[in-house]
Hints:
Cytochrome Bc1 Complex, Chain D, domain 2, mainly alpha
Amino acid sequence: MKQFLAVIGFSLLTIAGFAGFSNYGIPRIEPAPPPVQEKIDLSAMTMDQFISLGERVLNGKGTCKLCHNELGRAPLLEQIIPNTEKRLADAKYKGEAHDLEGYILESMVNPSAYVVAGFGKSGSNDTVSPMPDVSGGSIGLTEPELLAVIAYLQDSGGAEVTVEIPTDAGDAAAEEVTAEEREPLEDPLEIAAEFGCGACHIIGEDEGDIGPDLTKIGATRDRDYLRRAILYPNAEIAEGFEADIMPDDLGDTMFAVEVERLAEYLASLK
């Protein structure tokens, strides 16, 4: 009996030890809550404030600098103003814009209207842009945000700011401020959409052309590798791609269970 009780006691002690370690000894991945949009009264906004809003959108929610940077994944935004007239006159131009303001807007919502040479999707002969429509999908810029980006690009490029601050669009989304709780997503494709994976990768219905194609990634990469690639994207760079393209803060913004669900899903794609 004593031996039996000793075994039971040892077992309970072991279980308690493991439970305590799993709850307190292993660091938890606590995601930063998603941003909520500050509401700004456009009717009370000055043009300088509207331009500043455009800068924040371009560098934040719009994810523009993810591709438009010195790494050469997309044309530098500084090239828009000096080249707009030439691009509008190009025989390859398929859009309807007639001026700088219209061209910048069209470049954001219909990027295939004109594809700068060398920056089209592979095999498209520069007729199809890899850039998504930023007014939809996971980016989803509103009309005021689109106009604010135009104002910022015009101002920063030394051109006349021709856009007018909309007064009939209600409150505009602006800075990322107060945190708001959310529940973890369950569908891996919803997770991918929430964190903009399709802007760079082919996954689900998205056809990003900047990062590796993920449609059959599970045939060559296991779950552990994929988890590490999500959390530490610069730890190992896929051949033919460059470092510092993929965001390195997903471990802070995703729930741990979302990381696991996404890694498991990707590992199943064979």
